[in-house]
Amino acid sequence: MVFEDNYQAARRRAAVIDRVNHGRLIVSGPDRASYLQGLLTNDVVALTRGQGCYAAYLTPQGRMIADLFVYELGDVMLLMLPQAVKDVVLARLNQFIFAEDVQLGDVTESFAQIGVVGPEAAQQLGRLGVLVASSEMLAALPEHGNARVQFGTEPAIVARVTDTGEPGFDIYVEKSLAAALKSVLAAAGVRTLDDDTAEAIRIEAGVPRFGQDMDEETIPLEAGIESRAISFTKGCYVGQEVIVRVLHRGHGRVARKLVGLVSDSESTPRPGSRVRANDREVGHVTSSAFSPSLRKPIALAYLHRDFLTVGTTVSIDGISATVTPLPFAP
Q1: Residue 110 lies in a domain
Q2: Is 170 found in the same domain as 249?
Q3: Among 14, 37, 189, 315, which is least packed, fewest CB within 10 Å?
Q4: Same domain, residue pair 128 and 29
Q5: pLDDT truncated to tens, each residue of the chain (330 aa)?
Q6: What is the span of the domain harbouring residue 47?
Q7: What's the distance, CA 215 to chain centroid?
């Protein structure tokens, strides 16, 4: 159930999201960028201190192992990725260290990750003095931009994020400081988003989530993340051959694609629901929510490539729905 007050707080002011479903890895050593460059889909070597990027980690067959965010902090790189695949990714990364001067560390249990999102997120953080950083400095951070700051007298990291659906910041602090950070924000009236409302905002923005809208069978092109996650000018990376073959020989056409659906029903379709067109099964729902912006149920779904045209009518469990451009709401 979406809570309207929480939704409006995130959309109009600022709100807190506890990012408990994410894992955090540290990559250190002078070869860290060149090492990751051959494994991830984006141009990691191009990152300088304070910059970051979104990327995917693929199998040689071009299927996703994970999506992740890479932040160059100047002395180490911080990787933020889904908690459920963190151990798998760490084990795979370890396997590919040969002569490189690279060290890997799991800091998931050492640091808390608190999101503050909304159009007033920078102002709130600056005004409250939550971080030793000005509102202007925070507002000037580009997407994936990051900086070492302080929470009181303790070190912290802040990064600009958009994967929440409503842009804002992730703040990384020692886990023992998480309660104090949340308390300062709550005392100032910054609401904490419940899971359902946070999910509705993400889906409205058309942001796919690994483990829900993407998995180990997904090619990035199917999920539509290639413009953000893949560099087409960098050198080789694992899985590149498949991506290039689909783009050049297949002209970018994939068998299925993630699209938006708006339902004509008052009830929200369930993830896993089958999508049909003319009595033919053409896909399935991966995420769904009631959209406070549209005042209708919405869903992300994979559909067969013959049914991707905006305006196409399909049915979800017998209820009519329409293929809609993403994002559903800005």
Answers
A1: yes
A2: no
A3: 189
A4: yes
A5: 778 999 999 999 999 999 999 999 999 999 999 999 999 999 999 999 999 999 999 999 999 999 999 999 999 999 999 999 999 999 999 999 999 999 999 999 999 999 999 999 999 998 877 776 788 999 999 999 999 999 988 999 999 999 999 999 999 999 999 999 999 999 989 999 999 999 999 999 999 999 999 999 999 999 999 999 999 999 899 999 999 999 887 777 899 999 999 998 888 999 999 999 988 999 999 999 999 999 999 999 999 999 999 999 999 998 999 999 999 987
A6: 4-200
A7: 13
Please check whether residue 208 is in contact with residue 258, taking contact to mean a CB–CB distance below 8 angstroms: yes
- Give this prediction's pTM: 0.95
229/98 same-domain check: no
* 330 assigned to some structural domain: no
CATH number for the domain that contains residue 13:
3.30.1360.120
Of 266, 265, 276, nearest to 316 by C-alpha is 276
193 plus 237 within the same structural domain: no
Q: Which of 200, 218, 247 is the last residue before a domain boundary?
A: 200
Helix axes 195-204, 4-12, angle to 10 degrees: 50
Q: What is the pLDDT of residue 294?
A: 95
Q: Are residues 138 and 253 in the same domain?
A: no
Query: Residue 132's pLDDT is what?
Result: 67
Last residue of a domain, one of 141, 172, 200: 200
Asked whether residue 226 is assigned to any structural domain, the reply reads yes
Q: Which amino acid, one-letter code, is at 13? A: R
Check: CB of residue 272 under 8 Å from CB of residue 236. Answer: no
Do 48 and 156 fall within a single domain? yes
Instruction: Tell me the two tokens of residue 304.
Output: 């067969």
**β-pair partners for 301:** 259, 285
